[in-house]
Amino acid sequence: MDPAVTAAIAAALPARAVVTDPARLRTYESDGLTHYRATPGLVVLPETTDQVAAVVRVCAEHRVPFVARGSGTGLSGGALPRADGVLVVLSRMRAIRAVRPEDQRADVEPGVINLDVTRAAAPHGHYYAPDPSSQLVCSIGGNVAENSGGAHCLKYGFTTNHVLSLELVTADGEVVTLGTDAPDAPGYDLVGAVVGSEGTLGVVTAATVRLVRSPEAVRTVLAGFRTTDDAGAATSAIIAAGVVPAAVEMMDALAVEAAEAAVQCRYPDGAGAVLVVEVDGPAAEVAAEFAAVERLCREHGAFEVRVASDPAERALIWRGRKSAFAAVGRISPDYLVQDGVIPRTALPEVLRDIAELSRESGVRVANVFHAGDGNLHPLVLFDDSVPGAAAAAERVSGAILDLCVARGGSITGEHGVGVDKAAYLPRMFTDADLDTMQLVRCAFDPAGLANPGKVFPTPRLCGEAPGPRRGVHPLQAAGLGEVF
Amino acid sequence: MAGLPVGDAGDRDDVGHLGGAGDVDGVPVGSVARPASTAEVADVLRAAAADGLAVVPCGRGTKLTWGRPPERADVLVDLSAMDRVVEHAAGDLVLVAEAGAPVASVAEVIAGAGQRLAVDEIVPGSTVGGTVATAAAGPLRLLAGGVRDLLIGVTVVRADGTVARAGGKVVKNVAGYDLGKLLTGSYGTLAVLTEVVFRLHPVPAARRFLRVASDDPAALAALAAAVRRSPVVASALEIDLPGEGPGSLTVLLEGTADGVAGRVSVAAELLPGAELTDSPPPPWAALPWDPAARGDDRATGLKVTCRLSGLAELLYAARAAPVAVRLRGSAGVGVLLGAIPAGTEPAPAAAAVAGLRATAGRLGGSLVVLDAPAAVKAAVDVWGPVPGLDLMRRVKRQFDPDGRLSPGRFAGGI
């Protein structure tokens, strides 16, 4: 790192907020996707918005890239540091500034842990709906960057549906507030643009989020099926019946085996697939919907249907599902996790195609997914000590994404593109699509300093619109951009 | 613009729905293009770019006067010929439609599958594209969110004729930037929407409406808060407060037959004396002004928002304004529509706007003048203060560097 940059940042921040020791820098070399590593040039742990702004201003002045990081649990390498850049770690900005049940809002700093918002709101009869599996450790800032989902987003939506307002440090170090406490703030929906932009439009330093009233009743069922086809058919039947469950999760036999080994969740023996279906809402409604869910599971071949009768049983059912990724470590030394999305109705075919890919390649694939919204999490297993195994796993992983795209789906449902899937983005979008998205990037960050190298495989040269152009570019004329 | 589907505004019968005057809110239209495909829209925009012409996109023109009048309207791109439902993936609860498809005809197509697009048609005759461009949502937004929350994919044509897509046909999707959010409520100033993809919802088996009336705005707001705090989970929670006389609060409960019956009894305890109906009590999902009125016959239509705890104060402010403002909208979301009667002089209308805007701003919300007679628009700040305006201007310059898409219609002169 340029000593002038380090000095300027050190002058603006308390000593405890600046990390230069190489050993400590290395502890930040990756996020949740550990096979991408880079030791950051400098790490800062700001405690206030002003400190974040000061750091970004130094970066802007010296043309040094910066990467924001929350808890570092992301699964697409979105917070992979830059060796030539500053890593802005927001975990010390973890104040819940206000919980306002009468407004159904909470005002939080970016380092606040997802589940802590719910914990703070629970005494008031409310909770924060987006619940990624990592909610015990992941931060709201990271959720905002990735537009995180979770098991319950089938009914309640994603982070973007729950953020009303953001405080943003722009790429030139200005502090702006986007959105208002109420929805439909006048002007462009910049909150909607920033949520899910993976840290490429600036650094979020506070968020006002929606709180949802805690449901009066929650019922959870675990159903064992002989095949994933049967479980998929049950899922489609539930949706077709007009039931909107809070969550519909599926695991195949290999994923169940891993979960059993790890957390002894006591899923049904001999199941080729299990479904976890949760229904929540007013008690009267839940009773009616739950009866339909139970009946439809049985009608579609469930050989065992287990209803959680108390919170402990419910927690046990969820423990198997939520620990699935980590559990796979019990049955394979290494794995890749994918996050593709398909139209829900294509589920049985795509699962058969994945099984076929697995047979052909000899690479084992465990499937854990949000069946209700077609979001697959195939865990591609391999042993990195076997030569060529990692490459074979990569090939299978990529082929699965191709299956998703071919069915009109997406390469990522909730993990984000990051550095991991940037190369796959052109399989979904044309050059013109990606160019158009990057117009937003050019508006927010013409110099390309906010988390460069993420999301887009090829950066757009801002201020240089394609096609014929007359006269000087308005951005240059306005002094806002330059051609480089 | 030879070879393109373009004609003079004056001699086309098929643009009668645009008011017949060949103008956009008083600004004369040079020519009208009526493309039938995204490729034809791209042709029109390339031709307009070559000639430096200002382009105003529109659907059926039902909200074409919303916002400020454009500075120029050289080419009106009328998308009403692009009215097809492209795909209804019923099993996936997804709908793809051309921008010019009327909301009502989309509703008809999907109703057969027991599904609905949870956007109320608050302006009769609206197209899906116009609904997105103006972010026009109604009572069901409490249940399903606003237009932004239902839109999962877009195809747009940029000012230079580039065709681009974002999002897709699956609900859960974080690949690339979510341009649909940016386009929602952008009033034709960033790009021309040609195709939209929505998530759909199942039509519930049963529904009941509970309506209570009261002279006291604070009582209505308190009832709304009580319903929000209760476990009944309303699909809509609508308040309607005329400039004078009693107002009302209407709760919509939807679900299974048994479930709704149980919830109605809970809600009825919160709302003593509530009138119970199976069909929506008028004026459900209707603007508080006449959207068919044109020119100086228009009322001044507002969108007023506030944080949920500020509802009572906002209602009082509406009553205390120099001219009484009728407010109607979602007490469960904090987004209301307001009307100052047609014929109100510009000065008192402007004073009412300024006063109510100050209150809304203090309550964490905002006020935008959606529509008004020319003299009122000239007398007020239509968009009011806008957080993040500088970034918005930068976004506009990137998408439309020459400022030719609905120039001047939007916030901050965008």
Can you put this structure into words, describing what you see?
- The complex is a heterodimer of chains A (484) and B (414).
- Chain A is an alpha+beta fold and 484 residues long.
- Chain A has four domains: 87 residues, Uridine Diphospho-n-acetylenolpyruvylglucosamine Reductase, domain 2; 118 residues, 2-Layer Sandwich (Uridine Diphospho-n-acetylenolpyruvylglucosamine Reductase, domain 3); 117 residues, 2-Layer Sandwich (Alpha-Beta Plaits), CATH 3.30.70; 85 residues, Alpha-Beta Plaits (2-Layer Sandwich), CATH 3.30.70.2740.
- In chain A, 34% of the residues lie in helices and 19% in strands.
- Chain A has 17 helices and 18 strands.
- A seven-stranded antiparallel beta sheet of chain A has the order 15-12-14-13-17-18-16, with helices on both faces. A five-stranded antiparallel beta sheet of chain A has the order 5-6-10-8-9.
- In chain A, strand 8 and strand 9 form a beta hairpin.
- In chain A, helix 8 packs antiparallel against helix 13.
- Chain A starts with a helix and ends in a 7-residue tail after the last helix.
- In chain A, 60% of the residues are buried.
- The C terminus of chain A is likely disordered.
- The two termini of chain B are 26 Å apart.
- Chain B is built from twelve helices and 20 strands.
- Chain B folds into four domains: 75 residues, 2-Layer Sandwich (Uridine Diphospho-n-acetylenolpyruvylglucosamine Reductase, domain 2); 120 residues, Uridine Diphospho-n-acetylenolpyruvylglucosamine Reductase, domain 3, CATH 3.30.465.10; 72 residues, Alpha-Beta Plaits; 85 residues, Alpha-Beta Plaits, CATH 3.30.70.
- In chain B, the strands form four sheets. Chain B has an eight-stranded antiparallel beta sheet.
- Chain B is of the alpha+beta class.
- In chain B, strand 2 and strand 3 form a beta hairpin.
- About 2% of the residues of chain B have low confidence.
- The chains are: A alpha+beta (484), B alpha+beta (414).
- Chains A and B meet through strand 9, helix 7, helix 8, helix 10 and helix 16 of A and strand 10, helix 6, strand 12, helix 7 and helix 8 of B.
